[in-house]
Amino acid sequence: MLRRLVGCLIALLTPLLDATGAQAAQYCMPDPKTPGIDVSKWQGQVDWAAVKASGVVFAYARATNGTKILDEWFDANWAGMKAVGLYRGAYQFFRPGQDAVAQANLMLARMGPLGPGDLPPMIDVEETDGQPPAVVADKVAQWIQVVEAATGKKPLVYTGTWFWDPYVGSDAFASYPLWEAWYCTGCCPNLPKAWSSMLFWQYSSKGAVPGIGGNVDLNWFGGTATALDGYTFGPLVTTPVIDLLATTSAKDFRPEGPSAGVADVFEGDTVTVTLTVRNAHGAKPTLDHVRLGYWLEGTWLEPTSYAIETDWPAKDGVTFVPSDAESAPDNPAKGALPPSGELNLHALAAGETKRVRLLLHATQYSLGAVEHPDVRAWIRHIGDYYGEQVGWDDAVEVNKAGKLLRASVQHDVFGKNHWEWNGASQETEGFTASPGVTAFVVDPLAHALALTLAGPDPFIVSPELAVDAATIQGLEGRVRHGTAAVAGRLYFVTDVEPQWNEEKAIGYLIPGDGQWHDLTIDLGAHPRWKGKVTQLRLDPVPDAGGEHRLDYLRLVPNVKLTSGDADGDGALVGPDCDDAAPAVYPGAPEACNALDDDCDSQIDEGIPGCKDGCVKTGGELCGNGQDDDCNGQIDDGCAGCKPTGPEKCGNTSDENCNGQVDEGCTGCAGGSHPEDCNGKDDDCDGLVDEDFSLGKTCTDGKGACLAYGQIACGVDGAPHCGAVPGPPGTESCNGQDDDCDGETDEDFGLGKTCTLMTAGCETKGKTVCAADGKGSSCNAPPPVVGPESCNGVDDDCDGQTDEDFSAGKACETGEGKCVAKGYLACNGLGTSFCKAPLPKGETERCDGADNDCDGEVDEGFTVGEPCEVTNNDCVRLGTFTCDPTGLGVVCKAKHNAEDVCGSPPPPDPTGTDASGSGGTTGDLSSGSVDVSGSVVESEDLGGVVVLVAPEATEGCAPGRRAPPWHLSWLVLGALVLRARRRAPAC
Description:
The chain is built from eight helices and 48 strands. By secondary structure, it is mainly β. Helix 4 (100-111) packs parallel to helix 5 (133-151). The longest helix is centred in the N-terminal third of the chain and has 19 residues, at 133-151. Mean pLDDT is 79; it is low at 2-22 and 903-986.
């Protein structure tokens, strides 16, 4: 809507005064209030769904501006408001200079028939088109008569006190609902004198509402949405409109197979399920309590507590506070919620949302035990609006909603450190397989993970873990293999050693007899099993090897022994006489070491000269660190260097007395040598290249050239990133570093202030990337094109400024002798005026003219004020008028019913009248009193005109009666303010 700036200035600067100087009536719109907006073509395309979601309840759209301008967005707005369920109305910007009946008929034609949810039409009265107040009021009356007759309802009158009182001034429309335009917040607007209240209030023209670009008018309706419904051409909604939604805080972190889209939760964790019950904005409130039924399927999720919350009074679906329904006596204790039952939510107002938040504890592995355990909820009762749905599967006998109000949310419960594989064929519980596994599914009959090993290096990898190696020391499960014994390997990685390698592997052996065997792996026995373990990998066989099954796997606190081949030598536990020594197994070569290397119950057999693990080679040789004569002593009888054993690396000592230090130490450079990146244990701490984060992800290059790789040792003994940066390209304007120089879009001057010229208007913005990325553009918004105002701005963007107001042209102001010449200029209110110097006038006279050229006429004279004329027993009332001389005023009085006459007072021996006051004489014998024969004069006593009577012939004043008791208060008030000159006494 167009707005007069004067309305804003009056609202901000001063209380509005009526024509007599009295302050206009203020009206404070009480709560509750209902929010709404009004739009026209200036808002462009509107996303009405977003508008409604923001909490707006009603909206008005402009249909036309008079008969000559049709709002091009009206049809879209009119349909859009209806589609999203907003209360809607239409308005017309009224033009008093055009045919009022034609305007009304055009408005009705554009609206079409009105129905449920449609509000009465509104006439926007804020322009005179140069018409006087009487014509404006008459035209408004014609418009209202046509619209009211066609619709059967009183239309709304939109205006502002700042416009109505000075430019219309009619009180003939006081029975029509007022829509006041008065911009302020937290204030009480001044009302036009014709109204004592307002139904709608437009309090801002600079609102921001989702779905609308730029400013929009904000309004309040003085009442609830239910009250607003009473003004429509049929209720928008006659019943509650209830929706039920079930959501969960759990995420779908195991999306494979039928579990895709199902929320997942680990045993022992807590999940929150929210049951949201919403009554639509504009709907009827529920007449009594809403009862919500619920059921937690099975024992997988156990209720621990609950909360009932409401978004009242905000009713925004976001601002929730505890609901008093929590304390309803028929609701269970918060910490004792049974797995099924119902909750009393109390009543729901229109637009109110209540939610029940169930706190659930995951207690039992569910995948495969049930399809997906549900949390189910349904509306048990909503007064006579809804039937009685006792259980989840019950049909509602009488259902005005037209649907079953029920909702559910599904979960799968997993173990953090164990896997069961009891589900459907594709539910592999996060495990993945290498290409060497040609079939990888769950066998639903055997309840096992079924693998077909038919390629090179088949293996499976667990999902990501967070296992504390200090508390988890073992792995157990059940395994079956059907062709031959398999010597498998279990690999693991940690957060500090993320590489798969043999240094973090444990061997195990499973018989190939087609039977189920228990699998146990002692993880704690491995020296690298420490810190946080992040993933496991099972390699059943090094190459293709037939069918393999896993019934379950569990990470447990500890196990005593690793199944089968703990030392990885390929021998089963039974035949292998030492499963901790890889060199000891049936058929192994016997060595002279005092051990049964081949597991035949004999020690060192078949080795000539071997005695108690020692082979006698002859006499003792000094300096070789060996017991050459097998007498249990080394270098016995040798003088000088006394051997202490074999040579030790890194200590600069000759332990074997052979005259060499650290000979043979090719794999260990010595304890004082720093570690190099070379695949060797340089510092002899048992770790290789431990200081270089080998295998970790690294990057090289910038921008579009950035490449990822892994850290590896180079030929120079230093770690290097294996990433190979890509080639640089040509820089485009796309938010990326295309030329790989570390700068983004540096060639396009982004962020600089720019100017956009559109339709003759200029707007400012910033330089941004063009849509095609080939260059830049200015993001300055298009100008707001409006009607031209007199303000020094090109409002209509035609390249001309104030062209409709002839600014600068010569003009005249004033009348008669007060005419002054000047030029047309803008007045700050959007219109022009004649700016001219004040003419130099004369002394003001009482003659109906502006003699001193100050814009006022006869100021200082009491023209029009009440007065009285007395003569003996008669007092007559009249008003002051200008004396023909122009120097003062005279009292003109006519005979009327209020004349008071009686006997003349007795003579006053002192020569004065009874009151001691002088009087004004006049001939009271006729129907009118002519005091023109009296001598009157005026003198200025601070702006009060005083009547002065002449001296009588005898030198004394005639008698004068006091005013009668029944004079009106208006006259008495004037007389009190009037000072009278006393005539001289005789």
